């Protein structure tokens, strides 16, 4: 075996950026190239928006709107990122958002006021996550199948509850939360919730044993098991977490729209997966970043906004989104080859 | 045979994968109508060699001559067109298709160029199956519904559906019952009588004696012996070629134990049906016990069952008198067991992660304050553990995949050192480890034992077991055939036991 030459050759270039004295190199080593390029894409989009529609795009109200829209899908994406990092997938997020939002806005629930709506959203989300998690972790079902079944049943249940009608929120405190008067220093409360979820998600993934176990399960489930990690319990927690995020997102959506509809959260699963993927999370698991996912969400939401302001139809938006996903994955594969 | 030109001559075949040189200048020649056996341990390069021959891998260098003319096997189809068929160990059949569809997959008899002539395919499949001695297999049945033995027959029928001159069989007898093996040998005999050559891969020397003409032995990607007579080469010589070393190893000195403490690990009647027979074993702190045996003797299965990664069908494992929950890795780890598995990359390492994270993964609760990780404490502890084992480079933040095999193994050992484990289960600890780095690893293992760890060591390299262990259990086909202090055994004696299984007198 002629292996002795290989290790030094491999680690010299990797060690140097960490030890390099230049602050720029230290920064690029920390925030990796992908995060910087996502920031670059976002900056380019903002410039495009500013040039094409200078008055409307850069208007404070429009920026507030973009961030508010990003909040709902953003919270879902944070949960989705954890699931994908663990090597799983959650196709039911959109349906859970729909079910939680309609359950939280039934006449019966609304009698309990603000807390009733909040509590119901979260509990329904967590409950659906629990079912997903049990089926996957202890029922040994493939995540794709289990969450696909949840997608179908949760949507069906949501339709059954509403009978297709829009359930208008009559609780004034909930409606107020979505109004401009509730903004603090110009920041909508919904955006603050998104920010808090992002920060907690980042800490959870990067600074806790929970995050470490998630990465280990996604990177090599067999090795994690043989290292003494309870892989099944970890999987259960991960789908619970995703359900919790869906419950929070459902509440945000109820606040934002002042209603609950069974069509809520349509195709959120695809948007969340796409945002996580372009953010640099490996679909095969074992690697992912919350920052990347959030940037992915912001990029998608900004594109939608710019296209809408320029009166471009949603079909063009869809094509642009598809192109971005393909480009991001190609870049991802290239960087994977070089490391 | 010498008068005829060889059917196949492979010379100087080299093939590297990232980090491994799988084949290092292998020569192989095959005569028409002969059964040429390939022998070698796992990882010796047999699979890579036959994949090169099947066109599935492209060699980095070397030449292949087929019937006197140089050829390039660019793809499996190219190899098949020449008349080289391969029957892989993991059968490459499509379970959702019928027997006939599988046999003619990719070269279906067609009418008008694209309409599959199902009847024609079924009739000729039936003829092939009859020739193979299995007329009872219905060509219309789904392959997924067949037994493993019948699937193998289908695989063979597929090989014969081509105009084949050379069939490569990768451990064809592994999944077969004894009478099915007899049938296999009859088929091999028929084929060779027709002038078809067979490359036969097996671990079972008695099979090679029965049907082989010549033997080539691979070790560490090299052909250490080519074209030995299969029937007359002494067993000992063949096995020594397979397992033997060209280098003398320095083993650490064995300490003299006056009295060892009470056993830390007791295994009582532990068994897994079909894998290994009831096993009793005690392990004391400071002691290294070796399990010697060939591939398939149940070595890894025993370790993994003790560790809880496989559920035993009988028996129990006790650590310091406490019975472990059967089939629970977590319970075993909590009780102080640690496993360095055979397949390091697949079973132990998080290849995308740093050395630190690989080392700390089993001890995370120690650095956790209510789930919050103390990352500097983690880093320091990992650094301390890796330094203790002189892991190179001396920087645990590098990704574990950049490490050499020996240092990756040290990362796994550091994991259990940090965890503070008391029983270390080592499965082929020097697999894929540089010759130069092995002695260092041996010293590390002995030092860990001296510090009070109990070590259970599995190795297919007999000198390694004899040199490192205090006590040796010899395994053959899932059964302990001999137990003795290592000093009372020598390599030929162990090889005899491993091959023939004659219990000690």
UniProtKB/TrEMBL annotation, chain A:
InterPro entries the UniProt entry points to: ABC_transp_permease
CDD domains: TM_PBP1_transp_AraH_like (cd06579)
Transmembrane segments: 33-51, 72-100, 112-131, 138-162, 182-205, 236-256, 290-309
Protein's UniProt keywords contain Cell membrane: yes
Membrane topology qualifier: Multi-pass membrane protein
Chief localization: membrane
Record flagged with keyword Membrane: yes
Residue segments, region Disordered: 1-21
A matching Pfam family: BPD_transp_2
Highest taxon of the lineage: Bacteria
Localisation: Cell membrane
Swiss-Prot/TrEMBL keywords: Cell membrane, Membrane, Transmembrane, Transmembrane helix
Protein name: ABC transporter permease
Lineage, opening ranks: Bacteria, Bacillati, Actinomycetota, Actinomycetes, Kitasatosporales
UniProtKB/TrEMBL annotation, chain B:
GO MF annotations in UniProt: ATP binding
Keywords linked to the UniProt accession: ATP-binding, Nucleotide-binding, Repeat, Transport
Domain called ABC transporter: residue spans: 8-245, 259-502
Listed PROSITE patterns: ABC_TRANSPORTER_1, ABC_TRANSPORTER_2
Keyword Isomerase part of the UniProt annotation: no
Bilayer-spanning residue ranges: none
Statement: the UniProt record of this protein carries the keyword tRNA processing: no
Gene3D superfamilies, A to Z: P-loop containing nucleotide triphosphate hydrolases
InterPro entries given in the database record: AAA+_ATPase (IPR003593), ABC_carbohydrate_import_ATPase (IPR050107), ABC_transporter-like_ATP-bd (IPR003439), ABC_transporter-like_CS (IPR017871), P-loop_NTPase (IPR027417)
Protein's name according to its UniProt entry: Sugar ABC transporter ATP-binding protein
């Amino acid at each position: 075996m002629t292996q002795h030459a290989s290790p030094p050759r491999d680690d010299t270039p990797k060690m140097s950026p960490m030890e390099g004295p230049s602050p720029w190199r230290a920064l690029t080593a920390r925030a990796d190239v992908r995060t910087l390029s996502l920031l670059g894409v976002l900056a380019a989009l903002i410039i495009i928006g500013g040039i094409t529609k200078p008055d409307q795009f850069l208007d404070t109200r429009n920026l507030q709107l973009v961030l508010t829209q990003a909040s709902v899908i953003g919270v879902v994406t944070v949960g989705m990122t954890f699931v994908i990092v663990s090597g799983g997938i959650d196709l039911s997020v959109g349906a859970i958002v729909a079910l939680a939002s309609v359950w939280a806005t039934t006449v019966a629930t609304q009698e309990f006021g603000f807390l009733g709506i909040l509590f119901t959203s979260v509990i329904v989300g967590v409950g659906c996550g629990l079912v997903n998690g049990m089926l996957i972790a202890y029922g040994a079902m493939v995540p794709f199948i289990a969450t696909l079944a949840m997608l179908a049943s949760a949507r069906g249940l949501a339709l059954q509850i509403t009978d297709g009608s829009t359930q208008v929120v009559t609780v004034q405190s909930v409606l107020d939360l979505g109004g401009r008067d509730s903004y603090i220093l110009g920041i909508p409360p919904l955006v603050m919730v998104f920010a808090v979820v992002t920060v907690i998600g980042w800490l959870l993934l990067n600074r806790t044993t929970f995050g470490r176990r998630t990465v280990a399960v996604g990177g090599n489930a067999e090795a994690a098991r043989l290292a003494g990690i309870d892989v099944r319990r970890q999987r259960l927690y991960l789908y619970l977490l995703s359900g919790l995020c869906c419950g929070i997102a459902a509440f945000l959506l109820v606040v934002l729209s002042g209603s609950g509809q069974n069509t809520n959260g349509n195709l959120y699963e695809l948007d969340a997966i796409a945002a996580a993927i372009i953010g640099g999370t490996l679909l095969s698991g074992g690697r992912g970043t919350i920052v990347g996912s959030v940037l992915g969400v912001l990029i998608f939401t900004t594109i939608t906004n710019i296209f809408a302001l320029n009166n471009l139809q949603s079909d063009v938006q869809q094509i642009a989104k598809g192109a971005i996903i393909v480009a991001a994955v190609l870049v991802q594969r290239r960087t994977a080859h070089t490391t | 045979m010498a008068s005829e030109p060889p059917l196949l001559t492979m010379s100087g075949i080299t093939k590297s994968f990232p980090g491994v040189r799988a084949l290092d200048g292998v020569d192989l020649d095959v005569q028409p109508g002969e059964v040429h056996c390939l022998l070698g341990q796992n990882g010796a390069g047999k699979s890579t060699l036959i994949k090169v021959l099947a066109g599935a891998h492209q060699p980095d260098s070397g030449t292949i001559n087929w019937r006197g003319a140089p050829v390039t096997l660019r793809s499996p189809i190219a190899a098949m067109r020449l008349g080289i068929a391969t029957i892989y160990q993991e059968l490459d059949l499509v379970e959702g298709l019928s027997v006939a569809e599988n046999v003619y997959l990719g070269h279906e008899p067609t009418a008008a160029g694209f309409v599959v002539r199902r009847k024609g395919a079924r009739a000729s499949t039936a003829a092939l199956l009859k020739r193979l001695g299995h007329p009872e297999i219905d060509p219309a049945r789904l392959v997924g519904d067949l037994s493993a033995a019948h699937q193998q027959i289908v695989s063979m029928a597929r090989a014969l559906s081509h105009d084949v001159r050379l069939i490569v069989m990768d451990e064809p007898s592994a999944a077969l019952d004894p009478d099915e093996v007899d049938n296999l040998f009859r088929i091999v005999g028929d084929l060779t009588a027709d002038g078809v050559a067979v490359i036969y891969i097996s671990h079972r020397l008695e099979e090679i004696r029965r049907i082989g003409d010549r033997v080539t032995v691979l070790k560490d990607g090299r052909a250490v012996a080519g074209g030995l007579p299969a029937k007359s080469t002494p067993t000992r010589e063949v096995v020594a070629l397979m397992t033997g070393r060209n280098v003398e190893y320095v083993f650490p000195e064995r300490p003299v134990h006056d009295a060892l403490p009470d056993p830390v690990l007791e295994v009582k009647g532990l068994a897994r049906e079909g894998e290994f027979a009831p096993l009793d074993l005690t392990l004391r702190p400071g002691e290294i016990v070796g399990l010697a045996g060939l591939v398939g003797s149940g070595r890894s299965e025993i370790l993994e069952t003790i560790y809880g990664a496989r559920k035993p069908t009988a028996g129990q494992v006790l650590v310091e008198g406490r019975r472990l929950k059967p089939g629970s890795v977590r319970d075993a780890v909590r009780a102080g067991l640690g496993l360095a598995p055979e397949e390091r990359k697949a079973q132990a390492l998080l290849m995308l992660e740093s050395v630190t994270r690989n080392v700390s993964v089993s001890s995370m609760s120690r650095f956790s304050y209510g789930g919050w990780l103390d990352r500097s404490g983690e880093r320091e502890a990992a650094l301390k553990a890796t330094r203790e084992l002189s892991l190179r480079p001396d920087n645990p933040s590098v990704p574990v995949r950049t490490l050499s095999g020996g240092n990756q193994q040290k990362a796994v050992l550091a994991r259990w050192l940090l965890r503070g484990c008391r029983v270390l289960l080592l499965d082929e600890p020097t697999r894929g480890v540089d010759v130069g780095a092995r002695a260092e690893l041996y010293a590390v293992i002995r030092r860990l034992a001296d510090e009070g760890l109990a070590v259970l060591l599995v190795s297919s390299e007999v000198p390694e077991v004899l040199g490192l262990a205090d006590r040796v259990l010899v395994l053959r086909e899932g059964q302990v055939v001999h137990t003795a202090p290592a000093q009372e055994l020598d390599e030929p004696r162990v090889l005899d036991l491993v091959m023939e299984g004659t219990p000690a007198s």
